[in-house]
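Re: beginner question about structure tokens

> Can someone show what the tokenized structure looks like for a real chain? I only ever see the sequence side.

Sure, here's an example I had lying around. Input first:
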Amino acid sequence: MTALDGRVLATARRTLGPLTPVPDASLPPHLLLVATADGRRYVLKRHKTPHRFQAEVHAYASWLPHLADHTPTLISADAATLSLLLTHVPGRSATQLPGGSPAEWNAHHAAGRVLRLIHQIPPGPHPKPDVAVYLAERMRWWSVRARNSSLISTAQLRALHIKADVLAATTLDRAVCHLDYQPRNWIVTPNGAVTVVDFEHTRLDARIRDFTRLCCRNWMIEPRLRQAFFNGYGHHPTQEDQVQLGLFALLDAITALVRGHETGDPELLAHGRTVLTRLP
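And the corresponding structure tokens:
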């Protein structure tokens, strides 16, 4: 184990009894597959920050019981180790499906249907902050950081601030949002259904934002997958939705640009630069 230590495994054993780690090279370091004596499998997930841990626990406890057939089940959560014990979902990541295959098309169609269900979850009592103003401020903040690091020009900074003003004045449809909705977080089960994982970013937000990463990072290469996804979702973006998608694509791009620069991630850098070339 790397990110997972003995304390996390010990915590899970107090809940389930004896557990044996199961080697799985496809899992990232913060996840560990384990099995009970009778062969049942579970996943241990450890977070780096209390904020992400609390967000995911809240999502599983408050919203995801409505989607029990399309998400793992949270067995227990331990605040001391920032770890979650989840049921294991058999299948493979949608990123492992052959490009252009019927399986890939079907996965996007199924994922669209699941996202529709997520967006229909009753959010329950919640404060009503102005999401548009908050997101506009985020765009301005990331833009200034980008300019201070010489990642964008002064003209691009001005253009992004103008877009932020437009965003601040936009009326947004709010919903429970996954906010990292893309194939790496879809598990395609043996029967072709899609189970969604990783709810650490989930919160009440602008509904259209959940389409942004797919539009910018997946569908530009395979536009037919967009059709499959929205067929599953139940309706396609309106002209107003398309305008909002453009604004959120810029927010995603400027965020990726700065984070890519700060972490030395060439893929994020390239993504941010590609999208920002659409600016005047």
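Each token stands for a local structural state, so reading them left to right follows the chain. The chain is about 45% helix and 15% strand.
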